[in-house]
Amino acid sequence: MSGSKTQTQILSMPDAFRGKGGRRQPVLVVVQGEEIGRRYLLNEARLVLGRDPVGAQLVVSDPSVSARHAALSVDLDEERYAIRDLGSRNGTFVNGVRVRSGALRDGDKVFVGATVLKFTFHDSIEDRFHGELDRLMHLDSLTGLYVRRWFDQEFPRVFEQALSRGRLLCVAMMDMDGLKAVNDRHGHQLGSHCISQAGRIIKQCLPASGAAGARFGGDEFAAWFCDAAIEDVLDVAESIRRRVQAFEFREGEVVVEPTMSIGVAALSSDVSSPEELLRLADEALYRAKKNGRNTVCR
Q: Which of 18, 37, 51, 253 is deepest in the core (most CB within 10 A)?
């Protein structure tokens, strides 16, 4: 079943391509574009780079990149790496020169659409370094959930995969009730404490796999649930609502009681875009607010 991450997309590696201990890993790193810092590990013999989340293994969310833009061939044993354009609309360039196909060497820059990726190698130390950057760039320090930017990048890919494969997908939009009054009466420090604890409750309630939650900003949150029926997601949402209601939000001698309103929507044949699914969840959240708050609606 947030938001990536720098983002690392880990691709499965066949046994034939498992490297010797300590061998550096070939990677592509986005050095220019909306997904700057994103890392792609090159672990398969042939990988397609493009915008299509179903037809490409290296998904680049750049509207000027073709659905299947270029293919990379990877031979870890012989240490040979090459790229071939797949008839893309805007062409594939290596170090500024347009290519139909060509070898890749450490430090080469690959231009696809408005995105520039650097071909290089990482060892285990660099992997740990970039893993820490993943955490710093894409996790909200207050709540431990993903940031909205990561959610906005990843959700269209999750949506397209579910739509093309006929899989279940649900979204929950969440908003805290009464936080403005907490801020006005007790200050933003207590308000931030409430947001922090509510975010951690959400994170604890999400399934261990197939789900991701993000802080949308302020006291608003969102989560997606892959391969989950709406009834199961409603149960998770109700668990979040109950736990927030029961939690003691305390700072010193001051105790406040904010609650959570939640709207849930499911992918159906009537939904054709990720924006539409989010809108349906937002409309359900509005109904929860209108029905008295501290409730879950679908």
A: 51
DSSP codes, 51-101: S-TTT-SEE---TTS-TT-EEEEEETTTTEEEEEE-S-SS-EEETTEEESE
In what side-by-side order are the strands of the sheet with 70-75?
A: 58-59, 46-50, 70-75, 80-85, 101-103
Whether the Cβ atoms of residue 8 and residue 130 lie closer than 8 Å to each other: yes
β-bridge mates for residue 173, sequence order:
222, 263
Low-confidence ranges of the chain (pLDDT < 50): 1-21
Report DSSP state, residue 18: P
Return the pLDDT at 38.
83
Burial profile 245-265: b = 16 or more Cβ within 10 angstroms, e = fewer: eebebebeeeebebbbbbbbb
Residue type, 12: S
Is residue 49 helix, strand or coil? strand
Q: Quick one: pLDDT at residue 122?
A: 80
Q: CB 19: neighbour CB atoms within 10 A?
A: 13
234: part of which helix (H) or strand (E)? helix 230-246
Bridging pattern class, strands 146-147 and 249-251 = unpaired
